[in-house]
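URGENT: need a sanity check before tomorrow's submission.

F., can you look over the Membrane protein record below? I want to be sure the sequence and structure line up before it goes out.
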Amino acid sequence: MVVAFWILIAGLLAGVAPTLESVEDNASANLPPAASDSMKARDLVRAQLPGQDATPAIVVVRGEGADAAASAQQAVTRITAALSESTRPDQVASVISTVSAPDAAAELVSRDRSAQLLVVPMTGSPSDESFQNAVDKVRSLVSDRAGPTEVAVTGPAGIATDTVKVFSGGDRILLAATILLVLVILLAIYRSPLMALVPLVAVGVAMRVAETVGALLADAGLITVSSQTASIMTVLLFGVGTDYALIITVRYREALLDEPDRARAMRTAVHRTAESVLASASTIVLAMFALLVAASPALRGFGPYLALGVAVMALVAFTLIPALVLLLGRGVFWPGGVDKAAERGRGAGVWHRVAALVAKAPVRVASAVVALLVVLSAGLLGYQESFNTLSGFRTATESERGQHLIQEEFGPGEIAPSTVVVRSHEDLRSGSAPAEIAAGIADAGHVSRVGEHPRFAEDGTTVFYDVVLDLDPYSSEALDAIAPLQEAARTAADAAGVQDATVLVGGETAQNADIRSALDHDTTLIALLVLAIVTAVLALLLRSVLAPLYLVATLVLSFLATLGVTTFFTVTVLGDEGIGNRVTAYIFIFLIALGVDYNIFIMSRFKQELRTRPPAAAVTAALTRTGGVVSSAGLILAATFAVLMTQPIRELFQFGFAMAFGILLDTFLIRPLLVPALVRLLGDRALWPSRPGTPQTPSAPRTEPPAADAPAARVPEGGSGRLLRAFTWIAVVEACTWAGLLVGMYFKYVPETTELGVRIFGTLHGAAFVVYVLLTVLVAVRLKWRLGRTTILALLAAIPPFMTIAFEVWARRTGRLPGRAVTAKRTYGP
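Structure tokens as predicted:
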């Protein structure tokens, strides 16, 4: 029934959902916050200047030889004619060249006249296949009419088309390489073909369900999905899914040694792993939802889809994987058999030696590991960020070649001019103010030239200046020059007598400057929030205040070391312009959220071993028992992220390398050496304020409470039982009520949602959340943290109130709250 259920769900969703590619949004992910100055400038340009909503393709023509200028002019004439004929693509709106617009020659011809530019505005959406086909046809026409000259089509239209091609070519390679690599590793670990196929089948089902649900949500406008997010989802589900499968099936092998009944053995395995797997999945999901507080579209749109995928994967792991294993019977361990499989779960000899080393010299082990991490962090001395999309392609593109030609012939700033917008309450077309403002802009630092003919809005209250910097427009220096440029224009407007002028700067450089400010602000905020989430999950799991602090400290050290090595390898060795502007935030979020998994697995086992062993022996047992399975899980996860290095995009390559290195660092250095060494040094205080009780022996009566994950664990009757039942029912009612109201509000009321409605919604469920938290604390104190399966499931009802907050944030960001999204002004950066 379970297997049939998942197959039915996957099939039904696939039948009603659009394809994920059809709803991907790659444009908004590369934009600054909607309230930023550069986006306001862009909106003014589009609203006030006719035809500015088109996406321009830039054709660069460079002549060769002694008659370079003449050959370039002849080629421009032929290309202009070809793009003006009736056979041109329908998306070509016009052609601006020295032939069609002789007055613009000063801006379209290089200083030595050997090169010229043609601007080809194109209508339609760059994400549409018809638009991309039109760009390809333009390139074909340009190439046919080029003659002996060198030509290239670049600009926003060319860049958008090349970006789609680069991503589409890498997706198939990514999926095939991930499946093949995971299958090989699973065969080496399980030594059974059937057992190796179970995780792959489960991941395939989870991925299909997550993709279809994500496509439905994206189509409804609830979430955004980009090509990069989809690529990361692929490797994340393969890595996390195989990890969860490995944890459950290894415990199943152990349980079969004491319980011949396969169904009961599987129940025991699921019970014993539920706490750690649930904590792992919850950490990742909550860390992804933490991205909703970001103002940057690149970060805010990144989390919900990945959170959905991990949540679905956790459900599949707890249901489909046990069902498949049971259906396959004992043949799932063929050809070695269950006895040999279970024997491997007792711990390999290498982990006994590692445990002995930690037990013998914990101070030296901890000191050596910390020293190594500090040395690896030294690579951060060469850290710098890059905002150039084209330089991030690890394959040759015509757009990049065209930009290099423009830089060589026209100057570095010509590839992406900026637009200074000055808006007043009076008509600026008469008087000397426009000329005085232009002079003030020209005197600003790093300004190469200002366009000779400023453009005016229809009512004359807004004037637009084309400004070219003498810097690479994607460099940090150019980004730093935007604020002084804006201030210089404001000063010039004041000096020219323009009262209450609004001054904005638009263009790619200004947008990147706003992206950088927002990312700096968001990264700090999200880092603190993610660390708080991880600390809270560890505190709840381990019932400790001290343990989360030193465990989180090891994760931070791991992140710094990973980023240092990534910077050294990709920037210093490989010669990248810098670390992708979003990569650092991605590395931190994923490395912390995934790296804590291995701490969860070993510390959960340590806590279980404390029931029958003293702390020193419990550490050794936890390390030897989890050594093989956790190392295998880490190897799989690192390998899946390493597959991202096959992608021809800098950001994915750097992210894949960093995650693979960081996970291996956590798996083979921090988890088996540093964490056990710290636990050995702290002794009885390792889980403070909890203290280990008297270890049980087989002959001694059981004096401690039963384990939370033991099948026989029962909630005491009487007051505690009634309290727990009340708590569970309130949690279930809160979850169901929230879900019903949210669905009803979205599908019926969102177009007319008022601020009052959302505030009432938030207040009601905020109050319910307060009651829920109080009940949670009361239950925890009354039952002394003996939480069984039902209580753990009830704790999941804490998610809806957090989602309420996320909904209100989403409503504000998308303008569903009238007035606030339009009038509110937020400042990012210093």
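My own read: The first strand starts at residue 55 and ends at 62. The chain has a mean pLDDT of 80. If you see anything odd, call me.
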